[in-house]
Description:
Shape of chain A: elongated
Largest interface: A-B, 26 and 28 residues
Helix content of chain B: 55-70%
Helix content of chain A: 25-40%
Shape of chain B: elongated
Order of helices and strands of chain B: HHHHHHHHHHEHEEEEHEE
Number of strands of chain A: 15
Oligomer: heterodimer
Amino acid sequence: MNIKILICDDEPILCKKTQEVIKSIDPNIDADTCYLGERVIDIADKYDIIFLDIDMPGMNGMETASLLRRRGVSSYIVFLTSHSEFMPEAFEVRAYRFLTKPLDANKVSKMIDEIKLEMSSRHKVIIKTGDREYVLSSDEIVYLAAYGDGTYIYTTHDVIDSSKSLKHWAEVLSDKQFFYVHKSYIVSYAYISELGKMSVKLRNVKEEIPVSRRKHKEFREKYISYITTCARKQ
Amino acid sequence: MTQILTNTGLYIIELIKLLLFAFGISSVKIKSPKLLAVSAAASVFAVMAISSVLNIYDYAILYGVFASFACIFALEKKRSVLFLLFEYLTICILDITNSNIVMLVTDLQIDRSSSYHEVDFMINSLTIPILLILRLIKSKYADKFPEFRISARYIVLMSIGLFLFMVYISSLTLFSFTGGSTIRDRRLTVIACLSCVVFVAVVFLLFFHKSNSVQKQKEIEYTRDLLRWQDKYYTYLLQKEEETKRFRHDIKNHLYAINTLLEYDQYDELDRYLKDLQIKMTPLNSGIHTGVRLVDVILHELSEEHSDVTVEWEGQLSENTNIAMMDMCTVFSNLLSNAFEAAQKCDDKWVKAKVSSESGALYVMISNSTSHELKYSGGAVATTKTGSGHGYGIRNVEDVVRKYSGKFSIKCSDGAVSAEAVLLN
């Protein structure tokens, strides 16, 4: 698999340096550069990984990332910083990692391998609606809600109206990633922000999703094992 | 046949009362509700079988012993059976009081005829609604109740006391509710029973108070820990500030030197100078940034104290969670100090940490090299440290994990120990 990387840093010389580091790991990797956050927005969806400098004039790295996510770009975002302080906003934009400058080739290489592995295990989901067909990666799905015979599929940036029942989706989606919390809701573990007694809060979702009393214990246990497996893999 | 029926019927009533009290009100921990149901059902059949040869009705107290031991397989800690017996004695006192009040009001008398059994049935089940009301009160104020933690010694003492009380009031009852006693005797007996009930209630309140104060004590201890770390954090911050100030002052000189070297085209010299400068700057950025400043300090302190232990830290924490700083502090200070202390004693000294605070939960794994295997005592890890005051660390971590309905485990393999904790937001 040939992966494409976009490097964005307002300092052309540092951009070139990063590009060299990546090329030294694997010359087959496509690594393009650009010097402005605004430019990234236009071309980002062509790339698998986006290296973003945080301190940039105009739109800074965090703002760029946030806008990318709002536009539904699901590429891996890696932040480049010169200081190792961590920013809590990074969770919101689902940043994959922070790398400190100067880049350590070993770390970058290890990270690219991990991303490759993750990309190959990404589960594709095809959703057909009346007029079009959506192809999504399963980690873009936040939650699903039943209405009548159909299902609303809430993705990170869109709501898709599927005519298939929630039960159908429960069978299609992997139980490693999703849980059928309530007779009319399925949630993705990846977006849980708070697990309450009777409900669950999801990141960037205003309404709380109810959890049926019967399933609460199983849900908690499965969620803990999801966290454990994810963390161990990293 | 009637003997079997009445015996079993009464046993079921007693069993219901005990289960309600023990698991509904005082929430004794059980392994699984299924196991409890099976053992309770099995005990009912056992009573049925026994009563075909022996009239247990004459030894009613045996019901409680039987019922308590029926639950033993389902209990998480076998020791809780003591508590169950204690609760059964409480139920007995409630029963006697109830029946005495009923007999006083209805002018009934104790007799040994079989028609009395039906009355006994009714009177005995009167305690169930009382327990149900207590259960309702508990569920309404559930979050205000601390976890019930009383040492076995207290329970044994109280059980003896309650048993004596029971012997006292039951003989009083027998004396005053059989023929030839005056209404005054009966009233006095009821009053004696009621005072017993009040006494028991006071004892329970005291128990609650005690558990509460233990809890508070613990909180104070945690807060003190947090303050200690915060204090260290500020000292550390001041020290850093001092270093930065010095560096800021120096940078002018450095820039001047660089400029001069550039002016004279001494590139080799410039290269060397810049490399030197980079080395000088590293101590300023040194230390691991975990994402939570207090954890940084804990790590910094411990790695300074155990300077020959190598530390590896993976992942980022976030200060932006629902997990209280105090609890975060408890988890990291205990797990890390245990890890450093154990690693210090080995030839190959290392501590590794892996954390993640993504997706609404905190994941922590801390592993270290060790020279000896872990010891287990009763399912929990035993301390290898000598002297009193040790071995509470892990228990405190477990408390915090329980508070966030998470999971905690310790594993030991090939000369390494790893503790893994998950806390939910």
